[in-house]
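Extended Data, panel c. Modelled sequence:
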Amino acid sequence: MENNLNRRLNERALAVTAAIVGHSLWGFSYMFTQIALTVASPDVLLTVRFFVAFLILNILMLTGKFRLTLKGKSIWLLIVFSLLEPVYFYFETYGILYTNVTYSGVVLSICPIVAMGFAAIFIKEYPSAKQVLFAFLPIIGVIMITLSGSEMGVIQPVGILLLFITLMISASYRTINRKLSETYTAFERTYFMIGACFTVFTIVSLVKEKGDLSKFTDPLTKADFVVPMLMLSIFCSVLCYNIVNFAAGNMSVMTLSIYGTLTTICSIFSGVIFLGEPLTPVILISSVLIIFGIWQVTRIDAVNQHIPEPENKNDDTSQSER
């Protein structure tokens, strides 16, 4: 009994580490994307990024240490889950286009609360009252950071609709991810999701570029594209999706969603450290709120022993160390 408890606690500690590392690295993806976009269009970058990521996943499968086991499992929910990610990219992009950065940042910051509601409704996963209370601190922190960098612009009704759909997609993605962790390993979920991204982005970009392959090959001769693209492919795609998907199978939807606010902090500090952007008192105060809120939600979760059983036994923990 004691060994089983220790094993579960170790699984939880590994999941917390995975959530922190994954969401922190995603914060740097904005900087890498910004650099790469000086050379290529967003569609080209997304296509090349997920092509390289999908190639790496297939190479990992060839080593024999990672495999897909689909026999006897329901495939339809996995397909829906896989397609939600590329759809999210497009709705978010055009939602921001037809509103502004400030409005979209505030709207999307409440995703943890919506995800918590979805989890309660669809998979009967209920947080404690204290967790709900402390969950608002990171959200307030994100809103403060967003408003401090306010970018004015016209907000069109279609933009509001697109952002609302984006919010629903994000919450659905997190809830389905948690449900799928009962039968699919982190690697399996990552493989199909990245495969879907590669397929969708490739089709869309080829149509937009009218089949001109030089749009994809020319940027590969420039370091300003290749280096950030590799960082996005290897770390922000293959590594991050694997370890965050692993964490999704070992903590509640709300707790994992709250860790997502770390992405905002890291994106801000990556700009401060590497791009010379200013560090304001609002950013510091907001960062404290985010970190304190995450710590409290996680601490309460541990105290109340809301420790879920580890996900599928086929999901070797070594999958989270990539």
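Confidence is low (pLDDT under 50) at residues 305-310, 315-322. This feature is highlighted in the accompanying rendering.
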